[in-house]
Amino acid sequence: MVFYFTSRCGKYTMYMGKHKEENEGLIKYGLPEDCWFHVDDLSSAHVYLRLQPGEALDDIPTDALLDCATLVKANSIVGCKKTSVYIVYTRWKNLKKTNDMVDGQVGFHRPENVRRIQVEKNNFIVNALNKTKVEKFPDLAALQQDRIREMQQEKKQHRREEEKAKKALDLEAKRAKEEFSYDRIMTSDNMTRNSEFEATADSTAAEEYEDDFF
């Protein structure tokens, strides 16, 4: 079972597993757009924020960031009793899971890409988010495969568009080159004709001059 929430701004979906067993599935079958949140140094739920395609950590609005941090704190047995706690978050793709780790435990491929913020208890936000709470039983593996195929199609379409644009540019460059060559030929031909005309004119003038002289 997975619990889904909608951010207060209405733009983002957040989700978390009911138990640590569900957390394992979420760790394994996340999407590239997912961002992971957890209470630092305390046991808590794993909350995920699904970003919009192309968004980065720095693009997360302050309100959405506060929603996720507050939701994580509220779902920590120890953290929910504290006035404030620290929350760590990073992209799903930065999570590292090894065979020697227990359920729910994760590491990071790049620790330097993990962010840390402090959050205080906020029942108003928790209540607002709980009103949007929906329970689902998604096929996480299938959802991940669907997204991977979708991204592959997007990449193929992007490559096709790039190739089409490149061909258009190459064709335009070829036409410009041909027009430039044609203009040079015409200019050269005109210069030859003008030279012949000037030479003929000079010759005629010389003959007329000689006739007048004799």
From TrEMBL:
Keyword Ribonucleoprotein (UniProt): no
Signal peptide: none
Domain NFACT RNA-binding: 1-109
Residue segments, region Disordered: 193-214
Keyword Coiled coil: yes
Compositionally biased intervals (Acidic residues): 205-214
Coiled coil: 141-179
Domain of life: Eukaryota
Pfam families (UniProt xref): NFACT-R_1 (PF05670)
Alphabetic keyword roster: Coiled coil
InterPro entries, A to Z: Jlp2/Ccd25, NFACT_RNA-bd
Family in the record: Belongs to the CCDC25 family.
Record's protein name: NFACT RNA-binding domain-containing protein
